[in-house]
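ESCALATION

Customer reports they have been waiting on this structure for their group meeting. Please prioritize. Original submission:
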Amino acid sequence: MDFLNFLKPKKKKQLFVSEIDFTANQDKQFRLLIESFLSLHDSSVQDENECKIDYFFYTDSLEKAQKLEKELRKMDYIVNYGIAIHDKSLFVISGRTIEIEMKHETVRKWVEEMCELGYNFDCSFDNWRIVEESK
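Update from on-call: job pushed to the front of the queue and completed.
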Protein backbone atom coordinates (compact mmCIF):
# COMPACT_ATOMS: atom_id res chain seq x y z
CA MET A 1 0.00 0.00 0.00
CA ASP A 2 2.63 2.47 -1.11
CA PHE A 3 0.01 4.95 -2.19
CA LEU A 4 -0.71 5.66 1.50
CA ASN A 5 2.86 6.83 2.12
CA PHE A 6 1.67 10.42 2.15
CA LEU A 7 -0.06 9.65 5.46
CA LYS A 8 3.23 8.82 7.15
CA PRO A 9 4.87 11.69 8.97
CA LYS A 10 7.73 13.14 6.97
CA LYS A 11 11.18 12.62 8.38
CA LYS A 12 12.57 15.86 9.70
CA LYS A 13 15.86 16.79 8.09
CA GLN A 14 18.84 16.80 10.39
CA LEU A 15 19.85 20.42 10.86
CA PHE A 16 23.48 21.51 10.70
CA VAL A 17 22.81 24.52 12.96
CA SER A 18 20.42 24.10 15.87
CA GLU A 19 18.76 27.03 17.60
CA ILE A 20 21.09 26.52 20.57
CA ASP A 21 24.12 26.57 18.23
CA PHE A 22 22.78 29.73 16.59
CA THR A 23 22.42 31.55 19.91
CA ALA A 24 25.86 30.47 21.15
CA ASN A 25 27.46 31.47 17.85
CA GLN A 26 25.78 34.87 17.88
CA ASP A 27 27.21 35.50 21.37
CA LYS A 28 30.66 34.45 20.11
CA GLN A 29 30.40 36.79 17.11
CA PHE A 30 29.39 39.74 19.30
CA ARG A 31 32.46 39.11 21.50
CA LEU A 32 34.59 39.06 18.35
CA LEU A 33 33.03 42.39 17.40
CA ILE A 34 34.24 43.98 20.64
CA GLU A 35 37.75 42.57 20.13
CA SER A 36 37.79 43.79 16.53
CA PHE A 37 36.80 47.30 17.50
CA LEU A 38 39.46 47.46 20.19
CA SER A 39 42.01 46.55 17.52
CA LEU A 40 40.55 49.06 15.07
CA HIS A 41 40.85 51.91 17.52
CA ASP A 42 44.50 50.97 18.06
CA SER A 43 45.01 51.39 14.31
CA SER A 44 44.16 54.36 12.12
CA VAL A 45 40.59 53.24 11.30
CA GLN A 46 37.93 55.65 12.53
CA ASP A 47 34.12 55.45 12.73
CA GLU A 48 33.68 57.37 9.49
CA ASN A 49 36.01 55.03 7.57
CA GLU A 50 34.62 52.26 5.38
CA CYS A 51 36.27 48.84 5.13
CA LYS A 52 35.49 45.50 3.57
CA ILE A 53 35.03 42.41 5.70
CA ASP A 54 36.18 38.88 4.93
CA TYR A 55 33.64 36.27 6.08
CA PHE A 56 33.41 32.49 6.45
CA PHE A 57 30.45 30.11 6.78
CA TYR A 58 30.34 26.31 7.06
CA THR A 59 27.61 23.86 6.20
CA ASP A 60 27.12 20.15 5.58
CA SER A 61 25.77 20.08 2.01
CA LEU A 62 26.62 21.47 -1.40
CA GLU A 63 23.00 22.51 -1.94
CA LYS A 64 23.00 24.68 1.20
CA ALA A 65 26.36 26.22 0.21
CA GLN A 66 25.02 27.09 -3.25
CA LYS A 67 21.84 28.65 -1.84
CA LEU A 68 23.82 30.81 0.58
CA GLU A 69 26.25 31.77 -2.19
CA LYS A 70 23.34 32.95 -4.35
CA GLU A 71 21.96 35.07 -1.50
CA LEU A 72 25.36 36.65 -0.75
CA ARG A 73 25.85 37.52 -4.43
CA LYS A 74 22.55 39.44 -4.32
CA MET A 75 24.28 41.66 -1.74
CA ASP A 76 27.11 42.30 -4.24
CA TYR A 77 29.57 40.35 -2.09
CA ILE A 78 32.47 38.37 -3.50
CA VAL A 79 31.64 34.71 -2.79
CA ASN A 80 33.48 31.39 -3.14
CA TYR A 81 32.54 27.95 -1.89
CA GLY A 82 34.10 24.53 -1.84
CA ILE A 83 34.92 21.51 0.29
CA ALA A 84 36.51 22.46 3.61
CA ILE A 85 40.18 21.53 3.81
CA HIS A 86 40.04 20.49 7.47
CA ASP A 87 36.91 18.33 7.12
CA LYS A 88 35.90 16.85 3.76
CA SER A 89 32.31 16.38 4.96
CA LEU A 90 31.82 20.16 5.24
CA PHE A 91 31.59 23.01 2.76
CA VAL A 92 33.07 26.44 3.33
CA ILE A 93 31.50 29.58 1.91
CA SER A 94 33.82 32.57 2.04
CA GLY A 95 34.29 35.95 0.49
CA ARG A 96 34.44 39.68 0.98
CA THR A 97 31.78 42.32 1.49
CA ILE A 98 31.36 45.67 -0.16
CA GLU A 99 32.66 48.59 1.92
CA ILE A 100 30.88 48.97 5.24
CA GLU A 101 30.98 51.96 7.56
CA MET A 102 33.08 51.10 10.61
CA LYS A 103 30.68 52.45 13.20
CA HIS A 104 30.10 49.96 15.99
CA GLU A 105 26.32 49.83 15.47
CA THR A 106 26.67 49.36 11.70
CA VAL A 107 29.08 46.44 12.04
CA ARG A 108 27.04 44.96 14.92
CA LYS A 109 23.97 45.00 12.70
CA TRP A 110 25.98 43.33 9.89
CA VAL A 111 27.19 40.61 12.29
CA GLU A 112 23.63 39.99 13.44
CA GLU A 113 22.39 39.80 9.83
CA MET A 114 25.16 37.33 8.87
CA CYS A 115 24.35 35.09 11.84
CA GLU A 116 20.66 35.10 10.89
CA LEU A 117 21.39 34.61 7.19
CA GLY A 118 23.56 31.60 7.98
CA TYR A 119 20.91 30.16 10.29
CA ASN A 120 18.18 30.68 7.66
CA PHE A 121 20.22 28.63 5.16
CA ASP A 122 21.35 26.07 7.79
CA CYS A 123 24.93 27.33 7.63
CA SER A 124 27.13 28.43 10.52
CA PHE A 125 28.54 31.96 10.33
CA ASP A 126 31.95 30.90 11.53
CA ASN A 127 34.30 33.86 11.41
CA TRP A 128 35.00 37.27 9.93
CA ARG A 129 37.70 39.92 9.93
CA ILE A 130 37.88 43.56 8.92
CA VAL A 131 40.21 44.21 6.01
CA GLU A 132 42.30 47.32 6.53
CA GLU A 133 43.37 48.14 2.99
CA SER A 134 45.80 50.92 2.33
CA LYS A 135 44.35 53.41 -0.13
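Sent to customer with the following note: The mean pLDDT is 88.
Escalation resolved.
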